[in-house]
Amino acid sequence: MDQIRVHGGRPLHGRLPISGAKNAALPLMAAGLLTAEPLRLANVPRLADIASMTSLLRQHGVRIERLDASDGAGDTLTLSAEEIVSTVAPYDLVRKMRASVLVLGPLLARFGEATVSLPGGCAIGNRPVDLHLKGLAELGAEVEIENGYIKAGAPRSPGGGRRLHGGRVAFPFVSVGATENLMMAAALAGGETELVNAAREPEIVDLARLLTSMGATIEGAGTDTVRIQGRESLSGAVHRVIPDRIETGTYAMAVGIAGGEVVLDGAEAGLIASVVDTLGDAGLRLEPVEGGLLVARGADPVIGVDMMTEPYPGFPTDLQAQFMALMTVAKGASMITETIFENRFMHVPELGRMGANINVHHASAMVRGVPQLTGAPVMATDLRASVSLVLAGLAASGTTTINRVYHLDRGYDRLVDKLSACGAHIERVPTERAAAEE
Ligand SMILES: CC(=O)N[C@H]1[C@@H](OP(=O)(O)OP(=O)(O)OC[C@H]2O[C@@H](n3ccc(=O)[nH]c3=O)[C@H](O)[C@@H]2O)O[C@H](CO)[C@@H](O)[C@@H]1O
Ligand SMILES: C=C(OP(=O)(O)O)C(=O)O
């Protein structure tokens, strides 16, 4: 397997482009199933997860053309779901990526039926989909679980067709994916749907913007109550994916850990206000500038600050591992509490191999900053844990070798190129060379 090697100790300087958001692009692609007309998405990042969603949608019969951006900007995807050949999302494709379950709402709403493999647990937690299923049942769906598959059918109308109806869905706690699945289903349901305690993430607002361009009427996206007026059919649309706020936060923390001054091109500070505040408290300088966000750290290390993950607008769980890496070299201590996923501290033992001082007690980790990390071979089990080790490697003395690079490929578009261009000493070592050198 490929490895990434980071030779630490170099500050970062220059400009680093922020790609389109993975977690916005995936539901937007699934929304392509809602219409027979073409949907054009610009600023799509080049990621393994986008390739997985492409394979899944193609298997349903969606035609997808990709226009590569030669200048390193995002790709443009044109999706055409005119002829659907299957409403089944098979285990082999769904197991690769949990966001695959987002085809459930659109397939059920447009074709009256869908059979989607249960995504199963993953490294960061159990991650059930009960809220998605209960919500769809409120829109009239009959849902059963059989042989590891979700089988859902819309109610039959007197005319013989099958269509969901509007309804009121009150989520017991916030779920990004359930809010997205329900919004897409409701966009083709008869009447109005009200989602209470809905997720407020910027990716929800982006999806609402797309569904509105496609003809749905949506109020309240970005607040905890979203109202959707469904339509008989939706049209095609042209849409630009928002910048990736998690990638933005990750590279801001890279500057925090390595030092230096970098402009994150295309970043929108407004999408990560809580992160900007927390990093400001830690001593980083963050300033919106023409076309992006400037991040700088002087000669002094960052200061330890406490942090708790929360649904948006709180501090995102998808930046918890990176923040922990930053705090390992802070002056002072930091208490980090993870409230969204029950098993999202797998980077802790690996950071420990690099000399970090971290004690975990239930959902909290006490991080006591050390003056210097040391490079080590490390392994990670999920996307954000992997990148936290890259960040730690930027600050460590000597070489850090990160194995299982495929996790990074899921969510970081051209990571090695972007960091190298800012002066980091980082390389991707192909499998054969890595094996020969071991
Ligand atoms: C593709 C994508 O956008 N992924 C993001 C999305 O994941 P995802 O949409 O899967 O995350 P959710 O917001 O649904 O999960 C939040 C919590 O609710 C639980 N839950 C969720 C649904 C459900 O039916 N039942 C249930 O118990 C989950 O196990 C978790 O503990 O939001 C997460 C929380 O911000 C992020 O970490 C992921 O990067
Ligand atoms: C957890 C993540 O993604 P997913 O929900 O696709 O697993 C993530 O992006 O950090």
Automatic annotation (TrEMBL):
Keywords: Cell cycle, Cell division, Cell shape, Cell wall biogenesis/degradation, Cytoplasm, Peptidoglycan synthesis, Pyruvate, Transferase. The active site is at 122 (proton donor). Residues 7-419 form the Enolpyruvate transferase domain. The modification 2-(S-cysteinyl)pyruvic acid O-phosphothioketal is found at residue 122. UDP-N-acetyl-alpha-D-glucosamine binds at residues 98, 127-131, 318, 340. It is an enzyme of class 2 (transferase). Belongs to the EPSP synthase family. MurA subfamily. This is UDP-N-acetylglucosamine 1-carboxyvinyltransferase. The gene is murA.
